[in-house]
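explain this:

___
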Amino acid sequence: MTIALWIINGLLALAFIAAGGMKVARPKAALVASGLGWADDYADPTVKLIGAAEILGGLGLILPLLTGIAPLLTPIAATALTVVMIGAVTVHTRRKENATPSIVLAALSAISAALGFLVVL
């Protein structure tokens, strides 16, 4: 079960850190131009905050379990990322956009949270 958790968390961490890094590093106009139309509905600091939350969540999936320091934070980070992705599904659905990537990430984050709680506790 631990190996499955590491595989899922590694993939999720890569996805969230990359997506969050893009949101933090690029201006809102560039994000909208590259296909993230939802960003146009939010203020620039809000988009940056979402990106920062994704980066911190991605790090939270790996670092606590890797270092052995407060490993309970790993499933908590996965739970928080599940909530973020449920918000993303809601936004994409309201905008009549494809929500499939957000649904997949939400499901994988929920699985990671469940596995994480089983491994840690």
